[in-house]
Design goal:
Elements (H helix, E strand, L loop, with lengths): L1 E5 L2 E5 L2 H14 L5 E2 L3 H9 L1 H8 L3 E2 L4 H9 L10 H15 L2 E5 L5 H12 L4 E6 L3
Parallel strand pairs: 3-4, 5-6
Antiparallel strand pairs: 1-2
Length: 137
């Protein structure tokens, strides 16, 4: 698992399957973890905001969400890192959790978005356990 620094943020250059395996390792360990999917806007904001940068860099796994972040890596001479769309990763993680009986906590978005996402995921995956939700603002 290679980490690449883009601006002030560490991004994990990893495939979707490897990211899901790592997420499951975090779940099985009982320690849990934080998984972020920064895009170019988030990387730029982290460059300007030391506290936000610290939060992003505290992740257990930070996935490149967006072509802009991947191109930035190339421009900065780090090579092109693999892109993993946060929405696709979240969907696959929810399916994994439902299949294996793991619970999922959804954090982020404007008020009500995480709750709505939880309801929609439960419609798709009736066995999914939602540990909780919270807006990101």
């Amino acid at each position: 698992m290679q980490k690449v620094q883009i601006l002030d943020t560490q991004i994990t250059d990893i495939s979707m399957e490897e990211a899901l395996e790592r997420a499951e390792e975090l779940i099985i360990s009982g320690k849990g973890g934080k998984i972020f999917t920064p895009n170019a806007t988030m990387l730029e904001n982290a460059k300007k905001d030391a506290e936000f940068s610290k939060i992003l860099n505290s992740s257990s796994l930070s996935l490149c969400d967006g072509i802009g972040a991947s191109i930035a890596s190339f421009i900065l001479g780090k090579g092109i890192i693999r892109r993993i769309c946060g929405v696709e990763f979240g969907e696959r993680l929810a399916r994994l959790c439902a299949e294996k009986g793991y619970s999922l906590y959804l954090l982020g978005g404007e008020t009500g978005i995480a709750e709505r996402a939880a309801r929609n995921l439960i419609k798709r995956y009736p066995d999914l356990k939602i540990a909780g939700t919270h807006g990101g603002f």
